[in-house]
Design brief:
By secondary structure, this protein is α/β, with parallel strands linked by helices. It is built from 11 helices and 9 strands. The structure holds 2-acetamido-2-deoxy-beta-D-glucopyranose (4 copies).
Amino acid sequence: MGLLLLSSVSRKPNESMRLIVTTFFGVVLGFLIGVSFPTLSTTRRNVTSALLPGIDFAYEDKKTGLSTQTALNVLSMRNSSSAHNASDTSKIWVRSNPRGAERLPPEIIRAESDLYFRRLSGNPKEDLTYKPKYLVTFTVGFDQSKNIDAAVEKFSENFTIVLFHYDGRTTEWDEFEWSKKAIHISARRQTKWWYAKRFLHPDIVAQYDYIFIWDEDLGVEHFNAEEYIKLVRKHGLEISQPGLDPNGVLTWQMTKRRFDHEVHKETEERPNWCTDPHLPPCAAFVEIMAPVFSRDAWRCVWHMMQNDLVHGWGLDFALRKCVEPSHEKIGVVDAQWIVHQSVPSLGNQGESDNGKAPWQGVRERCRNEWRMFQDRFTSAENAYYQSLGINPSNSSEPH
Ligand SMILES: *[C@@H]1O[C@H](CO)[C@@H](O)[C@H](O)[C@H]1NC(C)=O
Ligand SMILES: *[C@@H]1O[C@H](CO)[C@@H](O)[C@H](O)[C@H]1NC(C)=O
Ligand SMILES: *[C@@H]1O[C@H](CO)[C@@H](O)[C@H](O)[C@H]1NC(C)=O
Ligand SMILES: *[C@@H]1O[C@H](CO)[C@@H](O)[C@H](O)[C@H]1NC(C)=O
Protein backbone atom coordinates (compact mmCIF):
# COMPACT_ATOMS: atom_id res chain seq x y z
CA MET A 1 0.00 0.00 0.00
CA GLY A 2 2.83 2.35 0.90
CA LEU A 3 4.45 1.71 -2.44
CA LEU A 4 1.23 2.18 -4.35
CA LEU A 5 0.64 5.45 -2.57
CA LEU A 6 4.14 6.57 -3.40
CA SER A 7 3.79 5.94 -7.09
CA SER A 8 0.40 7.60 -7.39
CA VAL A 9 1.31 10.68 -5.40
CA SER A 10 4.58 11.28 -7.21
CA ARG A 11 4.11 14.36 -9.39
CA LYS A 12 6.18 13.20 -12.29
CA PRO A 13 5.57 9.48 -12.74
CA ASN A 14 8.99 7.98 -12.51
CA GLU A 15 9.24 5.12 -14.96
CA SER A 16 12.19 3.44 -13.38
CA MET A 17 10.57 3.57 -9.97
CA ARG A 18 7.46 1.98 -11.40
CA LEU A 19 9.59 -0.68 -13.01
CA ILE A 20 11.30 -1.43 -9.73
CA VAL A 21 7.98 -1.63 -7.91
CA THR A 22 6.51 -3.93 -10.55
CA THR A 23 9.57 -6.12 -10.55
CA PHE A 24 9.57 -6.23 -6.78
CA PHE A 25 5.97 -7.39 -6.66
CA GLY A 26 6.69 -9.98 -9.32
CA VAL A 27 9.59 -11.44 -7.37
CA VAL A 28 7.72 -11.41 -4.07
CA LEU A 29 4.70 -13.03 -5.65
CA GLY A 30 6.82 -15.71 -7.25
CA PHE A 31 8.61 -16.35 -3.99
CA LEU A 32 5.43 -16.57 -1.94
CA ILE A 33 3.79 -18.96 -4.39
CA GLY A 34 7.00 -20.94 -4.47
CA VAL A 35 7.13 -21.30 -0.67
CA SER A 36 3.47 -21.94 -0.04
CA PHE A 37 2.54 -24.31 -2.83
CA PRO A 38 4.86 -27.29 -2.27
CA THR A 39 2.75 -28.19 0.77
CA LEU A 40 -0.30 -28.52 -1.44
CA SER A 41 -1.38 -31.37 -3.68
CA THR A 42 0.57 -32.45 -6.75
CA THR A 43 -2.07 -31.14 -9.11
CA ARG A 44 -1.70 -27.69 -7.63
CA ARG A 45 2.07 -27.92 -7.96
CA ASN A 46 1.71 -28.67 -11.66
CA VAL A 47 -0.48 -25.65 -12.10
CA THR A 48 2.13 -23.56 -10.35
CA SER A 49 4.96 -24.71 -12.54
CA ALA A 50 2.84 -24.08 -15.61
CA LEU A 51 2.22 -20.56 -14.47
CA LEU A 52 5.73 -19.87 -13.27
CA PRO A 53 8.21 -21.99 -15.15
CA GLY A 54 11.04 -19.92 -13.68
CA ILE A 55 13.63 -17.97 -15.56
CA ASP A 56 14.24 -20.98 -17.72
CA PHE A 57 11.25 -20.55 -20.04
CA ALA A 58 11.46 -20.50 -23.80
CA TYR A 59 11.61 -16.90 -24.89
CA GLU A 60 13.00 -16.01 -28.28
CA ASP A 61 16.66 -16.65 -28.87
CA LYS A 62 18.48 -17.29 -25.62
CA LYS A 63 21.83 -16.63 -27.26
CA THR A 64 20.99 -12.96 -27.63
CA GLY A 65 21.29 -12.84 -23.87
CA LEU A 66 17.98 -12.16 -22.26
CA SER A 67 18.73 -9.70 -19.47
CA THR A 68 17.63 -10.48 -15.95
CA GLN A 69 15.56 -7.34 -16.06
CA THR A 70 13.61 -8.50 -19.08
CA ALA A 71 13.19 -11.92 -17.54
CA LEU A 72 11.82 -10.41 -14.37
CA ASN A 73 9.51 -8.18 -16.36
CA VAL A 74 8.11 -11.15 -18.21
CA LEU A 75 7.75 -12.99 -14.93
CA SER A 76 5.79 -10.18 -13.33
CA MET A 77 3.51 -9.87 -16.34
CA ARG A 78 2.18 -13.35 -16.28
CA ASN A 79 -1.00 -12.23 -14.67
CA SER A 80 -1.24 -8.89 -16.34
CA SER A 81 -3.76 -9.03 -19.13
CA SER A 82 -6.84 -11.15 -19.64
CA ALA A 83 -6.42 -10.71 -23.40
CA HIS A 84 -2.98 -12.24 -23.20
CA ASN A 85 -2.58 -15.99 -22.94
CA ALA A 86 -0.14 -16.30 -20.07
CA SER A 87 0.89 -19.88 -20.78
CA ASP A 88 2.04 -19.04 -24.30
CA THR A 89 5.67 -18.09 -23.71
CA SER A 90 6.52 -18.11 -27.42
CA LYS A 91 4.79 -14.75 -27.74
CA ILE A 92 6.22 -11.51 -26.41
CA TRP A 93 4.31 -9.64 -23.75
CA VAL A 94 6.17 -6.90 -21.87
CA ARG A 95 4.02 -5.10 -19.39
CA SER A 96 6.49 -2.30 -18.77
CA ASN A 97 6.28 -1.30 -22.43
CA PRO A 98 4.14 1.71 -23.33
CA ARG A 99 0.45 0.85 -23.19
CA GLY A 100 -0.60 -0.95 -26.34
CA ALA A 101 2.94 -1.93 -27.34
CA GLU A 102 3.29 -4.92 -24.98
CA ARG A 103 3.78 -7.34 -27.88
CA LEU A 104 7.03 -5.70 -28.94
CA PRO A 105 10.53 -6.50 -27.71
CA PRO A 106 11.48 -3.49 -25.57
CA GLU A 107 14.63 -2.64 -27.45
CA ILE A 108 12.81 -1.85 -30.70
CA ILE A 109 10.47 0.64 -29.07
CA ARG A 110 10.94 4.34 -29.81
CA ALA A 111 8.33 6.02 -27.67
CA GLU A 112 9.58 9.51 -28.47
CA SER A 113 9.97 11.31 -31.75
CA ASP A 114 11.07 14.77 -32.87
CA LEU A 115 10.31 17.50 -35.36
CA TYR A 116 13.64 17.37 -37.21
CA PHE A 117 13.60 17.26 -41.00
CA ARG A 118 15.19 14.23 -42.65
CA ARG A 119 16.51 13.59 -46.12
CA LEU A 120 14.89 11.20 -48.56
CA SER A 121 18.15 9.44 -49.44
CA GLY A 122 21.53 8.73 -47.91
CA ASN A 123 22.47 7.18 -44.60
CA PRO A 124 19.78 7.98 -42.00
CA LYS A 125 22.51 8.30 -39.37
CA GLU A 126 23.86 11.31 -41.20
CA ASP A 127 20.53 13.09 -41.76
CA LEU A 128 20.70 15.41 -38.81
CA THR A 129 23.63 17.77 -39.02
CA TYR A 130 22.27 19.87 -36.20
CA LYS A 131 19.49 19.41 -33.70
CA PRO A 132 17.82 22.56 -32.42
CA LYS A 133 17.43 22.41 -28.64
CA TYR A 134 14.52 24.77 -28.33
CA LEU A 135 11.10 25.11 -29.91
CA VAL A 136 9.04 28.20 -30.59
CA THR A 137 5.51 28.17 -31.95
CA PHE A 138 3.46 31.11 -33.11
CA THR A 139 -0.25 30.94 -33.85
CA VAL A 140 -0.60 33.20 -36.84
CA GLY A 141 -2.68 34.84 -39.49
CA PHE A 142 -0.86 36.25 -42.48
CA ASP A 143 -2.01 39.76 -41.59
CA GLN A 144 0.54 39.65 -38.76
CA SER A 145 3.39 38.37 -40.95
CA LYS A 146 5.56 41.48 -40.53
CA ASN A 147 5.35 41.16 -36.77
CA ILE A 148 6.19 37.46 -36.85
CA ASP A 149 9.08 38.07 -39.24
CA ALA A 150 10.54 40.51 -36.70
CA ALA A 151 9.95 38.05 -33.88
CA VAL A 152 11.58 35.09 -35.62
CA GLU A 153 14.74 37.14 -36.01
CA LYS A 154 15.10 37.08 -32.21
CA PHE A 155 15.27 33.30 -32.17
CA SER A 156 18.61 31.79 -33.15
CA GLU A 157 19.32 28.75 -35.30
CA ASN A 158 19.02 26.72 -32.09
CA PHE A 159 15.24 26.98 -32.40
CA THR A 160 12.79 24.91 -34.37
CA ILE A 161 10.06 27.24 -35.61
CA VAL A 162 6.48 26.03 -35.91
CA LEU A 163 3.69 28.20 -37.26
CA PHE A 164 0.09 27.28 -36.54
CA HIS A 165 -2.02 28.95 -39.23
CA TYR A 166 -5.57 29.82 -38.29
CA ASP A 167 -6.39 31.61 -41.55
CA GLY A 168 -5.39 28.96 -44.09
CA ARG A 169 -2.80 31.24 -45.74
CA THR A 170 0.39 29.22 -45.62
CA THR A 171 2.17 29.57 -48.96
CA GLU A 172 2.34 33.36 -48.73
CA TRP A 173 4.85 32.99 -45.92
CA ASP A 174 7.42 31.70 -48.39
CA GLU A 175 8.45 35.28 -49.07
CA PHE A 176 10.48 34.87 -45.86
CA GLU A 177 13.59 32.77 -46.21
CA TRP A 178 13.20 31.24 -42.73
CA SER A 179 9.71 30.06 -43.59
CA LYS A 180 11.13 27.29 -45.78
CA LYS A 181 12.79 25.74 -42.76
CA ALA A 182 9.80 26.24 -40.49
CA ILE A 183 7.05 23.69 -39.89
CA HIS A 184 3.64 24.92 -41.01
CA ILE A 185 0.48 23.46 -39.56
CA SER A 186 -2.76 24.76 -40.96
CA ALA A 187 -6.23 24.31 -39.51
CA ARG A 188 -8.69 27.13 -39.89
CA ARG A 189 -9.96 29.17 -36.98
CA GLN A 190 -8.45 27.20 -34.16
CA THR A 191 -6.76 28.57 -31.06
CA LYS A 192 -3.21 28.17 -29.89
CA TRP A 193 -4.14 25.67 -27.19
CA TRP A 194 -6.11 23.60 -29.67
CA TYR A 195 -2.96 23.26 -31.78
CA ALA A 196 -0.70 22.76 -28.79
CA LYS A 197 -2.73 19.87 -27.45
CA ARG A 198 -2.84 18.17 -30.83
CA PHE A 199 0.60 18.83 -32.28
CA LEU A 200 2.94 19.30 -29.33
CA HIS A 201 2.59 15.98 -27.55
CA PRO A 202 5.37 15.72 -24.94
CA ASP A 203 6.77 12.60 -26.63
CA ILE A 204 7.01 14.50 -29.93
CA VAL A 205 8.72 17.59 -28.51
CA ALA A 206 10.88 15.60 -26.10
CA GLN A 207 14.11 16.79 -27.75
CA TYR A 208 13.60 20.39 -26.71
CA ASP A 209 14.89 21.83 -23.43
CA TYR A 210 12.44 24.73 -23.65
CA ILE A 211 9.19 25.28 -25.51
CA PHE A 212 7.85 28.76 -26.30
CA ILE A 213 4.13 28.85 -27.13
CA TRP A 214 3.55 32.40 -28.23
CA ASP A 215 0.86 34.66 -29.61
CA GLU A 216 1.36 36.70 -32.75
CA ASP A 217 0.90 40.18 -31.29
CA LEU A 218 4.09 40.51 -29.26
CA GLY A 219 6.67 43.25 -29.78
CA VAL A 220 10.13 41.75 -29.42
CA GLU A 221 12.45 44.67 -29.96
CA HIS A 222 14.00 44.22 -26.49
CA PHE A 223 14.04 40.47 -26.50
CA ASN A 224 16.66 37.87 -27.34
CA ALA A 225 15.71 34.24 -26.96
CA GLU A 226 19.18 32.83 -26.23
CA GLU A 227 19.75 35.43 -23.51
CA TYR A 228 16.31 34.69 -22.16
CA ILE A 229 17.11 31.00 -21.83
CA LYS A 230 20.34 31.76 -20.00
CA LEU A 231 18.36 33.67 -17.37
CA VAL A 232 15.69 31.00 -17.13
CA ARG A 233 18.36 28.38 -16.46
CA LYS A 234 20.20 30.59 -14.01
CA HIS A 235 17.09 31.23 -11.93
CA GLY A 236 15.65 27.72 -12.22
CA LEU A 237 12.41 28.76 -13.91
CA GLU A 238 10.36 25.83 -15.19
CA ILE A 239 7.53 28.07 -16.41
CA SER A 240 8.21 31.67 -17.35
CA GLN A 241 7.40 34.60 -19.58
CA PRO A 242 9.20 37.79 -20.53
CA GLY A 243 8.18 40.90 -18.61
CA LEU A 244 5.58 43.09 -20.29
CA ASP A 245 6.32 46.70 -21.06
CA PRO A 246 4.27 48.81 -18.60
CA ASN A 247 3.23 51.04 -21.50
CA GLY A 248 1.54 48.19 -23.36
CA VAL A 249 -1.59 46.21 -22.51
CA LEU A 250 -1.36 44.92 -18.94
CA THR A 251 -3.81 42.88 -16.92
CA TRP A 252 -1.76 41.71 -13.95
CA GLN A 253 0.94 43.26 -11.81
CA MET A 254 2.88 40.00 -11.85
CA THR A 255 3.75 40.15 -15.53
CA LYS A 256 4.71 43.83 -15.54
CA ARG A 257 8.37 44.33 -16.30
CA ARG A 258 10.54 45.52 -13.39
CA PHE A 259 13.47 47.73 -14.15
CA ASP A 260 15.65 46.69 -11.22
CA HIS A 261 15.53 42.89 -11.60
CA GLU A 262 16.76 40.14 -13.91
CA VAL A 263 13.69 38.09 -13.01
CA HIS A 264 10.95 38.33 -10.40
CA LYS A 265 8.81 35.60 -8.90
CA GLU A 266 6.29 37.50 -6.83
CA THR A 267 4.47 40.78 -6.73
CA GLU A 268 1.88 42.80 -4.88
CA GLU A 269 -1.55 43.03 -6.42
CA ARG A 270 -4.46 45.28 -5.64
CA PRO A 271 -5.70 44.82 -2.05
CA ASN A 272 -7.49 41.49 -1.45
CA TRP A 273 -6.62 40.05 -4.85
CA CYS A 274 -4.31 37.45 -3.37
CA THR A 275 -5.39 35.04 -0.65
CA ASP A 276 -1.76 34.01 -0.19
CA PRO A 277 1.46 35.78 -1.27
CA HIS A 278 2.69 32.51 -2.80
CA LEU A 279 -0.40 32.01 -4.94
CA PRO A 280 -1.67 33.56 -8.20
CA PRO A 281 -1.98 36.28 -9.16
CA CYS A 282 0.77 37.34 -6.69
CA ALA A 283 3.19 34.47 -7.41
CA ALA A 284 3.40 31.10 -9.18
CA PHE A 285 1.80 32.81 -12.13
CA VAL A 286 2.44 33.81 -15.74
CA GLU A 287 -0.09 34.63 -18.44
CA ILE A 288 -0.91 32.51 -21.45
CA MET A 289 0.11 34.93 -24.20
CA ALA A 290 3.87 34.18 -24.13
CA PRO A 291 4.62 31.24 -21.84
CA VAL A 292 7.87 29.29 -21.91
CA PHE A 293 7.93 25.76 -20.53
CA SER A 294 10.77 23.47 -19.61
CA ARG A 295 10.49 19.98 -21.06
CA ASP A 296 9.29 18.53 -17.76
CA ALA A 297 6.80 21.29 -17.05
CA TRP A 298 5.34 20.93 -20.53
CA ARG A 299 4.87 17.21 -20.03
CA CYS A 300 2.60 18.02 -17.11
CA VAL A 301 0.83 21.03 -18.61
CA TRP A 302 0.00 19.10 -21.79
CA HIS A 303 -1.80 16.51 -19.72
CA MET A 304 -3.73 19.18 -17.88
CA MET A 305 -5.02 20.78 -21.07
CA GLN A 306 -8.63 19.96 -21.86
CA ASN A 307 -9.61 18.97 -25.37
CA ASP A 308 -12.74 21.09 -25.47
CA LEU A 309 -11.52 24.17 -23.61
CA VAL A 310 -9.55 25.89 -26.32
CA HIS A 311 -9.01 29.47 -25.17
CA GLY A 312 -6.84 28.54 -22.23
CA TRP A 313 -8.56 30.88 -19.80
CA GLY A 314 -7.88 29.70 -16.29
CA LEU A 315 -4.95 27.61 -17.41
CA ASP A 316 -2.56 30.30 -16.20
CA PHE A 317 -3.94 30.02 -12.69
CA ALA A 318 -3.47 26.26 -12.73
CA LEU A 319 0.06 26.08 -14.17
CA ARG A 320 1.39 26.03 -10.62
CA LYS A 321 -0.07 22.55 -10.15
CA CYS A 322 2.66 21.28 -12.46
CA VAL A 323 5.76 22.45 -10.58
CA GLU A 324 6.85 22.34 -6.96
CA PRO A 325 7.51 24.68 -5.23
CA SER A 326 5.63 26.74 -7.75
CA HIS A 327 6.42 30.16 -6.29
CA GLU A 328 10.11 29.47 -6.92
CA LYS A 329 9.89 27.79 -10.32
CA ILE A 330 7.47 30.13 -12.04
CA GLY A 331 8.57 33.64 -12.80
CA VAL A 332 8.87 36.61 -15.11
CA VAL A 333 12.11 37.56 -16.88
CA ASP A 334 12.55 41.32 -16.65
CA ALA A 335 15.86 41.66 -18.43
CA GLN A 336 14.39 40.28 -21.68
CA TRP A 337 11.04 41.90 -22.15
CA ILE A 338 8.29 42.27 -24.71
CA VAL A 339 5.41 44.56 -25.57
CA HIS A 340 1.90 43.14 -25.61
CA GLN A 341 0.26 44.87 -28.54
CA SER A 342 -3.09 43.10 -28.23
CA VAL A 343 -4.38 42.69 -31.75
CA PRO A 344 -7.60 40.69 -31.35
CA SER A 345 -7.04 38.95 -34.65
CA LEU A 346 -8.36 35.47 -33.97
CA GLY A 347 -11.07 36.99 -31.77
CA ASN A 348 -12.52 38.58 -34.89
CA GLN A 349 -12.73 35.20 -36.58
CA GLY A 350 -15.58 34.08 -34.35
CA GLU A 351 -19.13 33.87 -35.65
CA SER A 352 -21.63 36.65 -35.11
CA ASP A 353 -24.55 35.41 -33.16
CA ASN A 354 -27.83 37.14 -32.30
CA GLY A 355 -26.48 40.42 -33.58
CA LYS A 356 -23.47 40.30 -31.25
CA ALA A 357 -20.03 41.08 -32.64
CA PRO A 358 -17.82 38.01 -33.15
CA TRP A 359 -15.40 39.09 -30.44
CA GLN A 360 -18.24 39.22 -27.91
CA GLY A 361 -19.07 35.60 -28.51
CA VAL A 362 -15.42 34.68 -28.14
CA ARG A 363 -15.10 36.66 -24.92
CA GLU A 364 -18.18 34.96 -23.50
CA ARG A 365 -16.84 31.54 -24.32
CA CYS A 366 -13.49 32.43 -22.75
CA ARG A 367 -15.25 33.22 -19.48
CA ASN A 368 -17.37 30.08 -19.61
CA GLU A 369 -14.32 27.95 -20.26
CA TRP A 370 -12.58 29.48 -17.30
CA ARG A 371 -15.48 28.54 -15.02
CA MET A 372 -15.71 25.02 -16.46
CA PHE A 373 -12.01 24.47 -16.05
CA GLN A 374 -12.09 25.58 -12.41
CA ASP A 375 -15.06 23.33 -11.68
CA ARG A 376 -13.39 20.35 -13.31
CA PHE A 377 -10.16 20.89 -11.49
CA THR A 378 -11.83 21.22 -8.12
CA SER A 379 -13.93 18.11 -8.53
CA ALA A 380 -10.96 16.14 -9.88
CA GLU A 381 -8.93 17.10 -6.83
CA ASN A 382 -11.78 16.23 -4.50
CA ALA A 383 -12.20 12.87 -6.20
CA TYR A 384 -8.51 12.16 -5.77
CA TYR A 385 -8.42 13.00 -2.07
CA GLN A 386 -11.64 11.11 -1.41
CA SER A 387 -10.21 8.04 -3.11
CA LEU A 388 -7.43 8.15 -0.52
CA GLY A 389 -9.93 8.63 2.28
CA ILE A 390 -8.71 12.15 2.95
CA ASN A 391 -11.10 15.01 3.50
CA PRO A 392 -10.11 17.49 0.78
CA SER A 393 -10.63 20.40 3.15
CA ASN A 394 -7.93 18.93 5.40
CA SER A 395 -5.46 18.93 2.54
CA SER A 396 -2.46 21.17 3.12
CA GLU A 397 -2.67 22.34 -0.50
CA PRO A 398 -4.26 25.79 -0.60
CA HIS A 399 -7.22 26.18 -2.95
C1 LIG B 1 -4.25 -12.02 -11.38
O1 LIG B 1 -5.41 -12.47 -12.10
C2 LIG B 1 -6.52 -12.72 -11.27
C3 LIG B 1 -7.62 -13.36 -12.09
O2 LIG B 1 -7.77 -12.70 -13.34
C4 LIG B 1 -6.95 -11.40 -10.62
O3 LIG B 1 -8.06 -11.61 -9.78
C5 LIG B 1 -5.78 -10.83 -9.82
O4 LIG B 1 -6.14 -9.59 -9.29
C6 LIG B 1 -4.55 -10.71 -10.69
N1 LIG B 1 -3.42 -10.29 -9.85
C7 LIG B 1 -2.60 -9.32 -10.18
C8 LIG B 1 -1.47 -9.04 -9.24
O5 LIG B 1 -2.73 -8.65 -11.22
C1 LIG C 1 -3.49 -20.55 -24.32
O1 LIG C 1 -2.45 -21.18 -25.05
C2 LIG C 1 -2.41 -22.60 -24.86
C3 LIG C 1 -1.15 -23.13 -25.54
O2 LIG C 1 -0.89 -22.47 -26.73
C4 LIG C 1 -3.70 -23.21 -25.43
O3 LIG C 1 -3.70 -24.59 -25.24
C5 LIG C 1 -4.89 -22.61 -24.68
O4 LIG C 1 -6.10 -23.04 -25.26
C6 LIG C 1 -4.84 -21.06 -24.78
N1 LIG C 1 -5.88 -20.56 -23.95
C7 LIG C 1 -6.66 -19.52 -24.33
C8 LIG C 1 -7.66 -19.05 -23.33
O5 LIG C 1 -6.57 -19.00 -25.44
C1 LIG D 1 23.41 27.65 -30.20
O1 LIG D 1 23.79 26.64 -29.26
C2 LIG D 1 25.17 26.39 -29.21
C3 LIG D 1 25.40 25.20 -28.32
O2 LIG D 1 24.84 25.42 -27.04
C4 LIG D 1 25.90 27.63 -28.74
O3 LIG D 1 27.29 27.41 -28.69
C5 LIG D 1 25.59 28.79 -29.68
O4 LIG D 1 26.17 29.97 -29.20
C6 LIG D 1 24.08 28.97 -29.80
N1 LIG D 1 23.79 29.96 -30.81
C7 LIG D 1 23.50 31.22 -30.51
C8 LIG D 1 23.19 32.12 -31.65
O5 LIG D 1 23.49 31.63 -29.36
C1 LIG E 1 -10.17 16.52 8.98
O1 LIG E 1 -9.89 17.42 10.03
C2 LIG E 1 -10.83 17.36 11.10
C3 LIG E 1 -10.50 18.45 12.11
O2 LIG E 1 -9.15 18.78 12.07
C4 LIG E 1 -10.76 15.99 11.73
O3 LIG E 1 -11.70 15.85 12.80
C5 LIG E 1 -11.10 14.94 10.68
O4 LIG E 1 -10.94 13.63 11.20
C6 LIG E 1 -10.17 15.09 9.48
N1 LIG E 1 -10.61 14.18 8.45
C7 LIG E 1 -9.79 13.38 7.78
C8 LIG E 1 -10.41 12.51 6.74
O5 LIG E 1 -8.57 13.40 7.95
